[in-house]
Amino acid sequence: MIFHLHKQIQIISQYYRLKTAILKTLQYSLDFRFYKFLGHNKSGIYEIQPKSSVKPIFVLCDMVTKGGGWTVIQKRFDGSEDFFREWRDYKFGFGNLHREFWIGLENIYELTGFQVSELLVEITDRDKIKAYANYNRFGIGPETDGYPLSILAGFSGDAGDSLTPHLSSKFSTKDINQDRHAIHCAQVYLGGWWYAGCHVSNNLNGKFINMALPEAYKFKGLHWLGFRGHEYCHAGSRMLVRPVQS
Questions:
Q1: Using an 8 Å Cβ cutoff, are 87 and 173 in contact?
Q2: Per-residue pLDDT tens for 15-62?
Q3: Superfamily of domain 31-243
């Protein structure tokens, strides 16, 4: 009887060691669908560590939208956070994961620059109607190249493709101009973005005005050309990424 009891204790001990090892391995997984596999179905803040990063980071995970497993890299819904910021802020990120935020270009590069990733853009209009643009290939380059929008392909969705015109564009902020236009588009359009020129097809980090745009702010608000046009300022947006499953 003592032998059998000892055997059961060994089995239980091995089980918990294995479970701990699995959880430790997945603690820093970039694909939250693994967490769902283990029964962690709740959206919220998780700790991950991209392979190229020297330390882990905290990110907001969406376990619900379109299959779940997404890392949210941008979120806007009430205008509480100022998105007209300088390069350093856009590089390292700003805001509050519980509210509005930008995760940071360096983090986006670490999440998408070393593995095949997809992007989901969610737009919410002032009537709380949501539209989506999904790209099954998405990635940006390193800071040494200007954090360019280097990979974008495979569009689908009901929001229209308003990001492809920005493909290959470098990122610009109000203090660093890397666009292809003679004037400083980030200053003109009051945001930080992959501005290809000053006739932008979207401006997700532009001015937040949850109303009909005054004449002075036309084209400068949070807009997405394929969903309500240039002159409409949306009530919210999210950008989400996840690894593409092979």
A1: yes
A2: 555 544 444 444 445 566 556 555 667 899 988 887 777 788 899 999
A3: Gamma Fibrinogen, chain A, domain 1 (3.90.215.10)
Decide the pairing of beta strands 44-48 and 70-76: unpaired
Q: Is the pLDDT of residue 222 over 90?
A: yes
Task: Give, for 120, the enclosing helix (H) or strand (E).
Answer: strand 117-124
Amino acid at 99: R
Give the start-to-end residue ranges of the domains of the chain: 1-30, 31-243
Total-model pTM: 0.85
- Maximum alpha-carbon separation in the chain: 85
132 φ/ψ angles, rounded to the nearest 5 degrees: -130, 145
Element counts in the chain: helices (H) and strands (E)? 5, 9
Coil, strand or helix at 154: strand
Average pLDDT over every residue of 72-78? 98
The four Cα atoms 101, 136, 221, 89 give a dihedral, to 10 degrees, of 30
SS3 11: helix
> What is the rounded distance in angstroms from the CA atom of residue 117 to the CA atom of residue 225?
24
CA distance linking residue 233 with residue 15, whole number of Å: 54
Q: Which residues contact 23 (CB under 8 A, 6 or more apart)?
A: 38
Q: Which residue has the tokens 């006739």?
A: 199
